[in-house]
């Protein structure tokens, strides 16, 4: 399969955070003003998808396979998060990305994110095969 995803490829993804990026079930209200780890993961997924999928043939996409994330510093809701993604390696259908996210005060999180390249139809076929009772 031909694609343009190569080691060293980089992209930047920026998001202005809102109250939707806070953890929604904070019973004490303590975390209501902080950007949550699940929100950062969603930003990473969005950024990686936007970066990689446009470089593949139309019938292929990337899907998340593994993430290792160190949420190192808190960020207040309302901050702009800048996510930097860089392809660390490409082996077969596996792409490993280095990830760093920062706000106006500095580093918020860093980690590694693995995505797999797969044919869209094959992905659905696998999913349907695993759950035939839902058809």
Task: Kindly describe this structure.
The structure is a single chain. With 135 residues, the chain is an alpha+beta fold. The chain has a single domain, classed as Thiol Ester Dehydrase, Chain A, CATH 3.10.129. The chain has 2 helices and 5 strands; from the N terminus they run E-H-E-E-E-E-H. It has helices at residues 37-52, 120-130, and strands spanning 10-16, 60-71, 80-91, 94-103, 106-119. It has a 5-stranded antiparallel β-sheet. The radius of gyration is 17 Å and the shape is globular. The chain starts with 9 loop residues before the first strand and ends in a 5-residue tail after the last helix. The model has no long low-confidence stretch (mean pLDDT 93).
List the helices and strands and how they pair.
Layout: E1 10-16, H1 37-52, E2 60-71, E3 80-91, E4 94-103, E5 106-119, H2 120-130
Antiparallel strand pairs: 1-3, 2-5, 3-4, 4-5
């Amino acid at each position: 399969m031909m694609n343009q995803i190569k080691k060293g490829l980089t992209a930047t993804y920026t998001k202005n955070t809102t109250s939707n990026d806070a953890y929604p079930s904070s019973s004490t209200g303590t975390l209501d003003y902080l950007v949550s780890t699940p929100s950062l993961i969603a930003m990473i997924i969005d950024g990686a998808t936007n970066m990689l999928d446009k470089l593949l043939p139309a019938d292929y996409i990337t899907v998340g396979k593994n993430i290792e994330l160190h949420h190192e510093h808190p960020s207040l809701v309302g901050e702009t998060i800048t996510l930097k993604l860089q392809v660390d390696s490409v082996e077969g259908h596996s792409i490993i990305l280095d990830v760093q996210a920062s706000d106006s005060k500095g580093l918020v999180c860093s980690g590694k994110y693995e995505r797999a390249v797969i044919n869209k139809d094959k992905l659905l076929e696998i999913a349907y095969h695993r759950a035939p009772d839902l058809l």
